UniProtKB/TrEMBL annotation:
UniProt keyword terms in alphabetical order: CBS domain, Repeat
PROSITE patterns: CBS
Organism the protein comes from: Amphritea balenae
Domain CBS, residue spans: 42-103, 114-180
Protein name (Swiss-Prot/TrEMBL): CBS domain-containing protein
Entries under InterPro entries matching the protein: CBS_dom, CBS_dom_sf, CBS_domain-containing
Domain of life: Bacteria
Tagged with keyword Repeat: yes
SMART domains cross-referenced by the UniProt entry: CBS
Length: 202
């Protein structure tokens, strides 16, 4: 049964002192880096989804379990209809829905307070392939969005969500908040902050 396999030689670990962490393995990025470096690409990772009929507090628990702050909302047939964020559930949206419809919190479903796909903005995958992180940051600043969908099209002409870009992911990768970027007076100043961790002069 095992004739086609062979046993590997095991190693001693007495001289191994370090653990690799994502911090050291991560691609170093800056504002001129390709935008694809900040895309969560669903050809590599599965989108975290939730059914539109799920109770909002169950959806929040799903976020916590999956270590995400946003879920893609789908119908029973698996069709994409929108997104829901932790802020949507923890903020005033649920209370407003309860008051307006005379229901209790357990009766509030994801579909009642989600952000419909028609309210979301997107970029094409082709656009993302040909732009830089700085272009994305400026786009987010001008639109006021926290997330941008990335959409592609199959050979049969079927449009689909290929990925997502998150303002918080960009801030984490650049170690730079959007607030700091907006306060900077020049691109050179932003670059200095990203590369050297310098502070903005008052």
């Amino acid at each position: 049964m095992f004739q086609e396999f062979y046993s590997l030689r095991l190693q001693e670990n007495c001289d191994v002192d370090n653990l690799l962490t994502p911090e050291f393995n991560a691609e170093q990025v800056n504002l001129r880096s390709p935008a694809r470096a900040v895309v969560t690409d669903f050809s590599n990772v599965d989108p975290v989804t939730v059914n539109e009929t799920m109770a909002v507090d169950d959806a929040l628990e799903r976020m916590k379990n999956q270590h995400v702050r946003m879920l893609f909302v789908t119908t029973a047939a698996g069709k994409f209809t929108g997104v829901i964020t932790a802020r949507d559930i923890s903020g005033s949206k649920v209370i407003l829905y309860m008051n307006n419809h005379g229901v209790s919190r357990p009766e509030v479903q994801v579909g009642h307070i989600m952000i419909n796909k028609e309210q979301l903005h997107s970029l094409t995958y082709d656009q993302v392939q040909h732009c830089r992180i700085g272009d994305i940051m400026l786009t987010l600043k001008n639109s006021g969005d926290q997330h941008l969908l990335v959409v592609d099209e199959t050979e049969l002409g079927i449009k689909r969500v290929r990925g997502i870009i998150s303002a918080s992911d960009i801030s984490r990768k650049l170690k730079l908040s959007f607030e700091v970027m907006y306060e900077a007076k020049s691109f050179a100043e932003i670059e200095k902050i990203v590369t050297q961790g310098a502070k903005i002069p008052l």
